[in-house]
Amino acid sequence: MKENNHILAGDRIGKLLVQLSFPAMIGMVVQSLYNVVDSIFVGRGVGMLGIAGIAIVFPIQMVMSAVAQMLGIGGASLISRSLGEGNLPRANRTFGNVLTGVIVIGAIFATLGNIFIDELLKLFGATDSILPYAKDYASIILFGSVLFSFAMATNGTIRAEGKAKVAMTTMLISAGLNTILDPIFIFWFGWGIKGAAWATVLSQAVTVVYLVYYFWAGKSILKLSRQDFMIDLKIMREIVAVGSASFFRMVSSSFIAVVANHSLKFYGGDVYIAIFGIINRLVAFVMMPMLGISMGVQPIAGYNFGAKRYDKARRAVHLGNKAATGISILGFLVLFLFPKALLSLFTTDQQLIEHGVPAMRIFVSSLPLLGFIITGGTLFQSIGKAKQALYLAVFRQICLIPLLLILPPLFRTTGIWLSFPITDVIFFFVTWEMYQRQMKDLSLKT
Length: 446
What we know:
Helices cover about 85% and strands about 0% of the residues. It is built from 16 helices and no strands.
């Protein structure tokens, strides 16, 4: 494979970033839009307890995503750098190891999760009134763990080889089909919250069929043999090392959601758990374009770092930061200025809307900083700096958890909402300092 024939070897970094980021942004936005629409359908078709049930299950889904992202992002980083070095056999072996990992771990997760489902949901903050709704949703979602993990991890691999439009298509398939099936299953079939879960699982199944066809038909640069599926401990250690930052970030975010749910249950009740669930979905929707940009930055920075073209790696990250920051500011303005209208999309419950408006404004007050936090952290994963990436993933949670324990006894639910922006401000400055040092180091290598 000649370097100058590969899309990631292009000299026009700005154009290349648009080529890779825009499809990822579209895919991620549509994917997140499905999550928002899913909650709207559940809120309208099932009610406030249905939204609260999804909010309880959300941290469990985050743990599933954490494993898939650890293998997918860690694998994508290694694949990008291997392609940059011209080492296709290592890229193939990496992908095979990623597939083996997600299938085995996904199957274990689905089995154990359903065996201990009641205990799991209560641990994650379900009250007696919320538990039946959460159980109906979680039991089906857990059933699709392997499908969900496979789709997420292979999507990262496709982006790593520069096929951003294909990666976007996989997300459009799952999100589009889910949006179509949601109202059919929830309202027409009368399945309620179970219908929302089945819509998610069936959509992922169709996506997996498309992904298998893509690789089986030889459309990928990567060509797998049986040997590639055998676990290579050296490769797997590097995948896990680089991807561990994403894993700990999402697992700790899941843990934080559990702590927040328990605090909200104690200081507010079911309605506040539902408010937290809605705000999470809306903030996640705003984050998706930023994550799409970081997904475009990662293969460009990783490839050029592997090819020792450090100036281009730096430029990709710098441009990504500018774009993500602009989106984060725009998202903040929408959520801060129109909270009542947004909450009203999900529910007609006036108590939820009344308490949700000030909660949302507090929660999103640090949103303008999020663009840099996301793309700044991507720098370290892109170039294989596992320790720095892991440190950033853990540091935010080290700040947030004490605040979630200290502030609620003083300010009740307001203390819970305040914990998040205070943490983000601290985390922004830590990320900024580490980012500047690393960019300076890349500049000296140029």
